Amino acid sequence: MTASLTEPAYAKLNLTLDVLGRRADGFHDLRMVMQSVSLHDDIVLTLTEEPGVRLTTNFSFLPTDGKNLAVMAARAFQQATGVDVGGLRIRVDKHIPVCAGTAGGSSDAAAVLRGLNRLFETGLTPEQLAKIGEGVGSDVPYCVLGGTALAEGRGERLTRLPALPDCAIVMCKPSFSVSTPELFHRIDSFKLRCHPDTAGMLKTLEGGSLQGVAHRLYNVFEDVLPLQQGNAIREIRQSLIESGALGACLSGTGPTVFGLFGTEEEARQAAAVLSPAYRDTYVVRPVS
Ligand code: C5P
Predict the structure, then answer these.
(1) Distance between CA atoms of 220 and 199, rounded to whole angstroms?
(2) What's the whole-model pTM score?
(3) Taking Cα atoms as reference points, which of 53, 56, 54 lies closest to residue 79?
(4) Is residue 203 annotated as a catalytic residue, yes or no?
(5) For ligand 1, atom 8, which residue shows the shortest CA distance?
(6) Peptide bond before 162: cis, by omega within 30 degrees of 0?
(7) Do 230 and 236 contact (CB within 8 A), yes or no?
(8) Model confidence over 80-107: pLDDT tens digits?
(9) 210 Cα: distance to centroid of ligand 1 (angstroms)
């Protein structure tokens, strides 16, 4: 058995996000096309003599106890498999911004599940690990699988999709944060005027047209954000488009906005325009 390993935890973007309705359990039925990108945290799992699960991280404001999704994932793995993880140290080296709409915490949890499966040689399939992740958070099952996928239901019904054509992506997160539960609550009293063309997006991915994907990016939460935050999002999107993005969109419940570019050079120039005002600006690539 290996005593220590490192697992990457990739950020995700929403190529589409649709909310279909509120469910009896208080969650919402969603339909989303998800994409992993190269910006990632590193999860280092180490077996130690000291009993219990301990977490350390370079982001000092994050919880390190059972409220951290990575710790929750280790406990869920233990419960589902019956494996005693014994003394386990989880080191979370964060690079993905927190509360950004890019599934940083969920991706860390998914990496813990994948990593423990390797560390303890439990031989679970990605689908079995995704099932364990369901109880940890709605985005965790997708993050276990990664790549390009359609997520439905609460987020746990997953269908793999053809990979997003290679491109350069600029991600930009304004400094304000949004509350995901609050935005889901707001959307209940909203009459959504517009929905993404999810079927069209699936067809376009099959055809492999980056331009087609870029034209179909859409997230219903753009309409739901309070005015001031919505304006900030629109400003970033406008800047990306003026810098040559083929399309740009909000990810998750935000506030990260991203734009798709045909070339790395254009993406770097677009990022250079945004980065003086927005520290959390990155040029990334899709991960399949
Ligand atoms: O599952 P997770 O803890 O990541 O969800 C965070 C919040 O997002 C939930 O408390 C809920 O308010 C909202 N949510 C939802 N429907 C989903 C996923 C999340 O209402 N399918």
Answers:
(1) 16
(2) 0.96
(3) 53
(4) no
(5) 181
(6) no
(7) no
(8) 999 998 899 999 999 999 999 999 999 9
(9) 30
Kindly report, residue by residue over 150-175, the tens digit of the pLDDT: 999 999 999 999 999 999 999 999 99
Task: Extract the residue ranges of the chain whose pLDDT is less than 50.
Answer: 1
Distance 27 CA to ligand 1 centre (A): 6
Residues in the chain: 288
**Helices (H) and strands (E) in the chain — how many of each?**
10, 12
Kindly state the helix (H) or strand (E) to which residue 107 belongs, with its residue range.
helix 104-119
Burial of residue 21 (CB within 10 Å: 0-12, 13-18, 19+) is: exposed
Q: Where does 203-246 show beta strands of DSSP type E?
A: 218-219
* pLDDT for residue 2: 52
Angle between helices 104-119 and 69-81 (to 10 degrees): 40
Predicted local distance difference test score (pLDDT) of residue 216: 98
Query: Mind giving me the DSSP string for 126-155?
Result: HHHHHHHHTTT-TTHHHHHH-SEEEEEETT
Q: What is the reported pLDDT for 57?
A: 97
Give yes or no: 41 in active site: no
Phi, psi (5° rounding) for residue 75?
A: -65, -40
* Separation of alpha carbons 57 and 63, rounded Å: 9
Q: Is 115 left (phi over 0), alpha (psi -120 to 50) or beta?
A: alpha
